[in-house]
Amino acid sequence: MQYPKIAFNDIQGLLIRSYSFLPEACYVMLQFTEQAQVRAFLADLLPDITRASHKRPDLAFHIAFTNTGIARLIPQEQLITGFAPEFTEGLNTKTRSRILGDFDTNAPEKWYWGGDHNPRVDAVLMIFAKDSAALENKYQDTIEKLQRYNITEVTRLNTMNIGSKEHFGFEDGIMNPLVAGVGGINARYKAEEEQNVVMPGEFILGYPNEYEKFPLSPRVKTGEKDVFDIGRNGSYMVFRQLEQDVKVFWEFIFRLSENDPHLQGMGPELIAAKIMGRRLNGEPLAPAAEGDLKNFFFAANDKDGFHCPIGSHIRKSNPRDGIDDDPGLSVKMVKKHKILRRGRAFGAPLSPDFDPATMRASENNDKRGLYFICFNAQINRQFEFIQNAWCNNNKFDGLNDDIDPIVGFPFRETAFRNSAFTIQGCPVRKKINDIPQFVFVRGGAYFFMPGMEALKYLANATGL
After folding, report:
1. For residue 461, is pLDDT > 70?
2. Are 440 and 242 in contact, with CB atoms under 8 Å apart?
3. Which helix (H) or strand (E) element contains residue 421?
4. pLDDT for 374-407, tens place per residue?
5. How far, in Å, CA of 289 to CA of 273, rounded?
6. Which of 22, 322, 404, 459 could be stapled to 42 by a disulfide with Cβ–Cβ 3.0 to 4.6 Å?
7. Crossing angle, helix 452-460 and helix 35-45, to 10 degrees?
8. Contact 381, 241 (CB under 8 A)
9. How many Cβ atoms sit within 10 Å of the Cβ of residue 214?
10. Do residues 117 and 109 touch, judged by C-beta distance below 8 A?
């Protein structure tokens, strides 16, 4: 198959690679003041922005803008085609809360940043470095520029390098779509191509998507007749700070293992694996070739969920071939709802070796969790659809009252989560009731990460 040719030199590098070789990172939220100073600031930053054509930089530096940041740089009357409505509306609104389940403990008024009662966020600077010294040097250099151009640092979000696991102790970062046209996708990916190689227009504006169409892109007037596609080679970025209560998670799991007569004999690690859909080492519960953590199907080998429960986290967030009676149609449909994840952990692990028994007994109350970051060309059809139609949907794929046990939130504005989880089995299923909340939303915003030519335009607003 002939894949589209991608303009790597015009794309910010984070869209193409996750920088696993740059383990230190921080995110600096900004608030703009005078437009002229913001433009001068951007012009000063441009040489530092890492292009996707730079394959292995020693340090990476990126910028993305919220709706308020874009509005300060592009007057509404200049837009011929606007930005996506969900981006323009912003994340901390009643509409988005209803879609995402951001009520009660997740409500924007309780966020650390990005909420109704927090300082406005106009942009985020993202720094990735090979060590902490390099990160701090770049941060201090950036602070000097912020002061020079009278731009306010709202907050600095520090990441924590905890290796290949997430805070509950599971191997993480196993599944991410392969972007068609990005290097290395060839015959050796044949096994993944059908379900995981996704057209670039699902993540990058200006390219065909899985519908064989080009996603809508914002365009601006640059003269009487000239029009500039400011969205091309850019993407919408979802950023949510998710706090994980690791102790409560493992306390709940051990309590089930020790006290629930229907679950005794399973052991805490297997119960946790049923909830996640993978074992702690990343091995999928659905049948797969030995050592293959990525290539497996639900409809073909585990249609009834006897191995990997239908309501498990990995099955809800990526149903693969199992969401439709026709597995082939299911794969095609799921590919239209993929996201490109770029998140990182924050906070120290509750146990250095991620031992479940130690995490259960720990009295450490430090904050820890995940900066969930993902790219998508259409927020409502990708990120919001996954959260709303799959994770938050208690009737997902024939279930009765099972939201995603990890990141699912009820649609109702009530304090009681009242979630259940079903472990399918023969001759009888097992039911876990009243699952507590393990993950809490503590901040967030929708951003747009422009391409390099678009950044040049934003820096001078006089054309290219």
Report:
1. no
2. yes
3. strand 419-423
4. 999 999 999 999 999 999 999 998 898 899 999 9
5. 18
6. 459
7. 140
8. no
9. 14
10. yes
